[in-house]
Amino acid sequence: MNHFRIFLRAGHSPTLFAAFLYFAFSCCIWVLNGAMAPFISETFQLTPAQKGLMLSIPIFAGALMRFPLGVLAQYIGRKRATLVEMGLIAVAMLFGFFAVKTFNDLLAMGVLLGIAGASFGVALSLGSGSFPPQHKGLAMGLVGAGNVGTAVSVLVAPPLAMWLGWQAVYGVAAVAILIPMVVMVVFAQEPPDLDTHAKFKDHIACLFEKDGWVFSLIYGVTFGGFIGLTTFLPTYYYDQFGVSKVQAGQLTMLAAFMAAAVRVAGGWISDRWGGVNTLTWVLVLVAICLTLIGFSYSSLLLTTLLLIVCFGALGAGNGALFQLVPLRWPTTTAVAGSMIGEVGALGGGIVPNAMGYSKEHFGTYAWGFVLFAVLAALMLVVMRYMQIRWTRTWAEKGGRARGASAVVSPRSSVVKPGLTAKR
Which of 27, 46, 131, 275 is deepest in the core (most CB within 10 A)? Predict the structure, then answer.
């Protein structure tokens, strides 16, 4: 508890809370179509492939919008960027309430839901911006715990859809987004950690570096797996085990909540043990769990337990990876985080499409799970190879933060130890 008090005093805790709330509401809205998929599928009589397409579009759209929002945040400030985004989310929800009449309208609504999915990089940078390097892992973990919004969505949206009709849920979301907007205006302040004089090419430098793409691909497994599975699981439980639409949401909530809760622990553990060490165990556990889930489709209990363990690992992995991001790109964390979040979240769009394709062509969802397990194992090999160089340049052994003497190279934005900063 004393350590946590020290942590809170090290930065601006009201901004941390505002960033968490903003991210939580955004996540809740982002996965609405997944949470209501059994209702939507029944209305439009969707095939497995159409379900996969409908569920993947919000993920792809959210991923593609992350980097532009991160760039915008660099120029107008992260607080202002969040307010712009939340205003657009409210407008998008009104479109869903009034205008979704056909399957094509539903696909368009999926694109608009992607606006909410763009929040990730800016939320983490805003919440952790006033905290020193040794506390950024925990700060990012706390903001990233806003993933709990996905659990709230799959828990609350199905009963609301049963009561009011699934389109009315969009209207409820349009009103609800006003809550984090007010909190952001009243409590948040712009952190002082960005280089406002940096050129655009400096902001996008991570796009042309191997580390940026390695981080993105790993994140494609950890966060992509989390958001893709959260979106798909209500459909999976409903189709595979014949549970009710509301029960499908409740079972999904158990796994999604575990990921959100453990994300905080992932950041905290990584501050002490190292992000690379944490990610190693995460990727091993995810690969094993997903393989077992693929072939435990006859047991609802075993599937649910394995999913809870798998989601816990995915949550820890999300926290661990973003403990490393501010160490690697300390002055452009918002854009680097948005780029990594953008490419990584694209991995989530693979999940529902792979599941739909597997079911439609092979009669089982198993091979969709196995495919993602193979990707996790592949990313483990890549990371263990790359970490040899990482721990020689910008991180301590295992992926911990370097000492206070580290500074930033003006050319590469990589932390280099043992140098004295020039004033």
Answer: 275
What is the domain range of residue 295? 15-189+201-402
Confidence category of residue 227, pLDDT binned at 50, 70, 90: very high
What is the C-alpha to C-alpha distance for residues 42 and 97, in angstroms, rounded to an integer? 18
Q: Tell me the per-residue pLDDT of 153-193, one tens digit each, with 9 for 90 and over.
A: 999 999 999 999 999 999 999 999 999 999 999 999 998 86
Choose among 98, 323, 314, 334: nearest CA to 225: 314
pTM given for the model = 0.84
pLDDT at 101 over 70: yes
Half-sphere exposure for 68 (CA within 13 Å, toward CB):
11
> Which amino acid does the sequence have at 77?
G
> Do 286 and 230 contact (CB within 8 A), yes or no?
no
422 domain residue, yes or no: no
Query: Distance between CA 202 and CA 172 in Å, rounded?
Result: 41
Q: What are phi and psi of 285, to 5 degrees?
A: -65, -40
pLDDT value of residue 403: 63
Q: What's the CA gap between 205 and 14, in Å, rounded?
A: 31
Residue 415, beta-bridge partner list: 408
Domain tally, the chain:
1
pLDDT in tens, 345-391: 888 999 999 999 999 999 999 999 999 999 999 999 999 999 988 98
Residue 5 in any domain: the answer is no
Domain assignment present for residue 3? The answer is: no
What residue has token string 């090419």? Answer: 201
CATH at 270: 1.20.1250.20
8 Å CB contact between 274 and 399 = yes
Query: Does residue 49 lie within any of the structural domains?
Result: yes
Question: What's the CA gap between 333 and 140, in Å, rounded?
Answer: 11
